[in-house]
Amino acid sequence: MNQIKKLKYLENLSYFNKVTLEQYYDLSKNGLYANINRWLKQGALIQLRKGLYVSPRYLQTLPDKQPYCEFIANKLREPSYLSLEYVLQKYSILTEAVYAFTSITLKCKRTYRNSLGTFVYRNLKEDLFTGFKILSRGQFEIKEATKAKALFDYLYLKTFRIPVISKEFLTSLRLNLDEMTTKDFLEFSKYCKQSGVKKYSKLPKLLEDLRYD
Questions:
Q1: In the chain, what are the domain boundaries?
Q2: Cis bond leading into 79, ω under 30°?
Q3: Beta bridge partners of 136
Q4: Cα separation of 212 and 130, whole Å?
Q5: Rounded CA gap, 84 and 150, in Å?
Q6: Residues 6+ positions from 165 with CB-CB distance below 8 Å
Q7: What is the pLDDT of residues 49-84, one digit of tens each?
């Protein structure tokens, strides 16, 4: 069988790596590497990041690619969960357009770009790697921060190097805090305490004051 025709066996996979390809091809590492490069140039394979691929046929079967992109955001850098600007825009807390899938990871920060979009990863320490839920969207399960945790992650990273968080600075971020409920603020306060950083203990009150201005 022609080598490229064997790729049809992978068309039902949401993603796969070189180990998966090695199961179908009796080739040396150099031979497989050469074939992968050729398939990428021919459009027979789509590279999600180095060593991770999907078949274009698989993408063609998806009626809506957004849930798949969210799912892949979890997979490109593990462990990770969607958060920050991407989630805040979903809840209309950020009013400006967001064009990247933004996530929190335990690994170092990284950005991947592929034909599906831009995937940005920021780092938090392990004890703050929490506050996400697993959502079912069609056939995909996706780790995504709650509204409160996405806001905490965003502000924590924005203000990490600022000695004092001022109301003026928070105002400049143009957050739509009307989308935050009392329950959301209580959850947000929990993460501020969990951070163990003194300046974040005043952040919930600053935001609530800003909300009612």
A1: 3-60, 65-212
A2: yes
A3: 141
A4: 28
A5: 5
A6: 155, 159, 199, 200, 202, 203, 206
A7: 999 999 999 999 999 999 999 999 999 999 999 999
Cα 87 → chain centroid: 9
Q: Which stretches does DSSP call E strand in the chain? A: 16-17, 46-49, 52-54, 80-82, 100-105, 110-114, 117-123, 132-137, 140-145
The tokens describing 135, both together, are 């959502």
What does the block give as tokens for 161?
A: 């190097």
Cβ atoms within 10 Å, residue 78: 10
Q: Which tens digit of pLDDT belongs to each residue from 130-152? A: 999 999 999 999 999 999 999 99
Helix (H) or strand (E) holding 62: none
Stronger pLDDT, 72 or 31, i.e. the higher one:
72
Where residue 117 falls (left for φ over 0; alpha for ψ -120 to 50; beta otherwise) is left
> Is this prediction's pTM over 0.85?
yes
